[in-house]
Amino acid sequence: MNNRMHQSVITWLLIVCGLIVTMVVFGGYVRLTRSGLSIVEWNVVDGVLPPIGEAAWQTTFAQYQQTPEFQKVNSAMTLAEYRRIFYIEYIHRLLARIAGLVVILPLVAFVVKGIIPWGRSAVYWLIALLFVFQGFLGWYMVSSGLVDSPSVSPYRLTIHLLMALLVLGLTFWVALDRVYPAALRRPARGAGWAMALLVLVGVQIAYGGLVAGMKAGHLSDTFPRMFGYLVPPGLFAVLQPWWANLVADPTAVHFIHRWFAFVVLSGALVLLGLVSRADAPREVRWGGLLLGLLVSVQVGLGLSVIWLHVPLTLALLHQLTAVLLFLNILFLLHRLRAGAVRVASAQPEPMSALHPQPGR
Q1: Phi then psi dihedrals of residue 229, to 5 deg
Q2: Which residue would you say has higher pLDDT here, 279 or 87?
Q3: What gap in Å lies between CA 46 and CA 43, rounded to an integer?
Q4: Three-state secondary structure readout of the chain
Q5: Which of 150-164, 172-186, 191-205 has the lowest mean pLDDT?
Q6: CA 173 from chain center: how many Å?
Q7: CA-CA distance, 207 to 114, in Å (whole number)?
Q8: What is the model's pLDDT at position 358?
Q9: Taking the model in full, what pTM does it have?
């Protein structure tokens, strides 16, 4: 494979990553504006176009009026107000369709032209399949808010978020394999800690999804105290057995999310110390500095979101920074697993067994 073709695959993968990040943040905007339940059907083809004409809008609005959200929350909503939330969700779904096409069409072209050999294309088709599955999960999430409750299931929302991270992480890892082609060597110091930190961040993001789904962020706008206590009385005694509170009681979920952030911060500082040594490659040292910056900003944003009672802009920045932190740790893990040694080669060879070699 010539270098131009190799670069075209890298560019495609990074564009896909950018689209996933955009979708995650825009999904947060949809949720915070209560727009996600405005479209009550999942029409993959027909839904490409919004309602056209007054009669079509009246029909669509009448469908929304049958939902629990309209009946219990937005019963005074006018058609003009409905159009606003409709278009927010419509853009969200349109972006998802565009992202799917950006994944599928170039992949088919790369395989047909032999840029990605068919026999080595499994991981790329897996990415495409996960994109399709993510679309199904999105509707599965939305459908939970169209029956009895005027909001989606926090568990389905969290699964949808974690699946987005999985697809993002896999796509970014494959791109890194191409950007840094190298033979697998003994992992450098800190690789295990980077893996542990990645798990911690995944847990924290999952709790963020639960906080969002339960609207638990609105329970308390004080820190470090909640309701006047460092540890609210009976925190893990609301539900039985006690461990059910860890994922089902909004107060406990909020409490865990706000304090687990400092576990992530501590882990990030340890990893920063490990990768900041003088003999570490430049990209690893810069990645470590970025890690310190992102985790500090993220904690600051989290506290600001609490104190200011979940303002829209700060909440979206908090979500974006979480995704960037996830990517940053994944980058450090990739380089540390490779021993952070870059091997120059006329024909790029990927270091990871997680995806096939670039075609020649």
Answers
A1: -125, 145
A2: 87
A3: 5
A4: CCHHHHHHHHHHHHHHHHHHHHHHHHHHHHHHCCCCCCCCCCCCCHHHCCCCCHHHHHHHHHHHCCCHHHHHCCCCCCHHHHHHHHHHHHHHHHHHHHHHHHHHHHHHHHHHCCCCCHHHCHHHHHHHHHHHHHHHHHHHHHHCCCCCCCCCCHHHHHHHHHHHHHHHHHHHHHHHHHHCCCCCCCCCCCHHHHHHHHHHHHHHHHHHHHHHHHCHHHCCCCCCCECCECCCCCCCCCCCCHHHHHHHCHHHHHHHHHHHHHHHHHHHHHHHHHHCCCCCCHHHHHHHHHHHHHHHHHHHHHHHHHHCCCCHHHHHHHHHHHHHHHHHHHHHHHHHHCCCCCCCCCCCCCCCCCCCCCCC
A5: 172-186
A6: 15
A7: 43
A8: 46
A9: 0.90
Asked if omega into 311 is within 30° of 0 (cis), the reply is no
- Amino acid residing at 55: A
| Residue the block writes with tokens 């919004």 | 50
- Residue 164's Cβ-side half-sphere holds a number of Cα atoms within 13 Å equal to 31
Which residue pairs from 122-125 have beta carbons closer than 8 angstroms and sit at least 24 positions apart in sequence? 122/356, 123/170, 123/174, 123/354, 123/355, 123/356, 124/174, 124/355
pLDDT band at 348 (very low <50, low <70, confident <90, very high): very low
